[in-house]
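Shift notes (night). Ran Helicase C-terminal domain-containing protein while the centrifuge was going.
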Amino acid sequence: MSTEDRPPAPRSLAEALRARGDASLGALLRSRPDLITPVPTDLTQLATRAGTRASVVRALERLDRFALQTAEALAVAADPAAYGELLGLMAGDDADPAVVAALPHALDGLREQALVWGDDDRLRLVRTARELLAPSPQHPSPTGLGPTVQEATAGMSPGRIQEIVTAAGLASTHDSVSAVTALAGLFTDRTRMAALLAGAPADSLDVLERLVWGPPYGQVTADPAPRLRWLLDRGLLLPTAPGTVVLPREVALHLRRGLAHRTPEPVPPAVETAAVHRPQVVDSAAAGQAYTALATVEELLKDWDEGGPAVLRAGGLSVRDLKRTAVALDVPEPVAAFWVELAYAAGLIASDGEADERYAATPAYDEWRELPAAERWSRLVTPWLAATRTAGLVGGRDAKDRTLSALGPGLDRSAAPEVRHRVLALLAGLPEGAAPAAGSVLARLRWERPLRGDRREDDLRGRLAEWALSEAEQLGVTGRGALSAQGRALLGAPAAPAPGPEAEPSGPGDKLPVHHHHRPAPLTALSPAEQAVASAAAARLLAPLLPEPLDHVLLQADLTAVAPGPLQRPLADMLGVLADVESKGGATVYRFTPGSVRRALDAGQAASDLHAFLAAHSRTPVPQPLAYLIDDVARRHGHLRVGAASAYVRCDDDAVLSEILADKRAAGLGLRRLAPTVLAAQAGPAGLLEGLRSMGFAPAAESAEGDVLITRALAHRTPPRTAPEPVPDGPPVPDDTLLAAALRAVRAGDLASTTPRKPGTAPAANGELPRTGAAETLATMQAAVLTGEALWIGYVNAEGAASQRVIAPIRVEGGFVTAYDHTADEVRTYPLHRITGVAELADEAG
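Came back to this:
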């Protein structure tokens, strides 16, 4: 393309955006969705918003390390800078081929993000980004570079500048500006600079070596040592304040062989493989963990079935209740916090909202329990992927030094879903069955998002990644550290890459130093509909790997029953009432006790029902001791009757009542005989029942009609509750419909604001709305109807929002104008009293 054919270079970011196509502008708005919240009126406003500090900081935080290094290099380059200068700062004098190859892509990314604009011969970093990244005494640059010679000598006397120029071997000049220019020219000339340093004392060169990679500032006394004096005399160190000197940027770049960064990182660090397992082993291990996850959540909710722990006044679980939960689940407290938060995220537990507020299962829990195991698993992992509540923070402190509690406020971290998804995506990029080294995953994440972690005291993204790896293993998304088939399906990931020859294990679990330098295709977060499809696919893959529920147990003579696997729901529920769980593991051991048998009888079961149940579900004969236990408890069960007097005890055998009255342990019940077969008590029915049972009796409660009460505890449920919504990390990425509408509105607004107007129509200056009187507005509209010309109007809607529009009037009547609105690309009707003014467009614009 000849110079005449080349479009003029943009003079501002707005002009650079105006020259972009819709695809390029759409990519910008997708990557920086805050720019269309709300939709800007035109491209000038879009450019202004793209240069605001909050938006620029957010965009910089989302750059990978090499793109950020490129932006940092532009911040210490000339403004504007040629591509060759940027390449020199990034690749150095040796022109690192990896940097040379990667730099165009990084620069294109910065342009797409609207952080850099201009052609390759005039590259400009957005002013706000330059202010954030350029070095200053208050905010040192990540490059470790200091100010330029011109900046460092700004307050120096002309005489002192001439002395430095002369000592450096340059001819004296008549003014300071030319002297500083000559000195900077010397420092940037590799040959002359090498000759100057060749004559430097060795200890002076040592001083430069200590400052070259930053910080560039040093301290000197009022009478500097000879090694420092030699450097100060020649401007290789320049004073910035009393007792402080700085290494000029040009000198540092010469000593660094042109590099702005000590270690440019154009290639992301490899995700290393720590171990390789057979895929079947990984999937089986993950399925085992998935089953354990389901059992753990069920056990948690069963423990809270009749009403769980109280809700703290500030919200959440108390430390004591979390400890109790951890003991009940037989896990450490941080793991217990994870399961509690997971059940909350899945909508299975919530607060009941009562006056004495407690946590309890929701109605959704009952529906969840009836689903097949694989679907129950998908109902847990899907909300886990999107959850912003972070269980790993439980026990820590918030900004006000308050303890963060499980289920309490302050646990949301908007970066959690993105980090979780990215960690799993990195695992999906490894060969099937490959488990990564955790350190290499963290290093990769730090390369992909360096600024956010580096500028905080604690590396939150690193901790989120560690928690994601641990939680994925507990949930069965991974097995033995490798992504399982169901985990891959959950992400909507394609098939795993085939392992190379070097990745073939000699045995399952062999550790191999396999490196993966390829950059896996990035997996984007799925839409809710896509995630539902992916979750269903994951459940289908998991289902065959989960153990089938059993319909039997093995009864033993020591009053125990062994369940060699998961039990079918009715069997598990009934056995949970009739016996106590003694131990868990690959097989669950239940123990029958007088208390557990009485619990089943209290629930309305008869002894014959219990005998029939055990005979039907045991693969071994019912042991005689167990049959005797059931009959013995049943014989005594209900022999005594307790009702409300405040409470009473009645029994057909008056000798038993006499025995109770004579027992010293009955003193606290306040018993007295009302009749030979009836005792009255001051204690209530519940206390009387408990007291008699502690004395070794087996009383039954009865109603006012004399019927035995079935005392099975009813499950306590909250009212219907919705699961907590994740806290978004800034505005959501616009969908295609919103993006197309926003682009059309911005383009139309830009047309209205940039279309040339005829001279003499007196539109307001500075892009404000045109102002004309009502009569002139009406006359201009009527004339435009006859001529078919387009007009530029200012319009204020019913909410008071002002805008500029280009319209072609069709009809004017009844105080309204009907016109084709180029801004909205449709015919609209506007009240004339809301039009602030009109201006005719220039002929070439029409």
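Residues 500-521, 760-767 have pLDDT under 50 and may be disordered. The chain has 34 helices and 25 strands.
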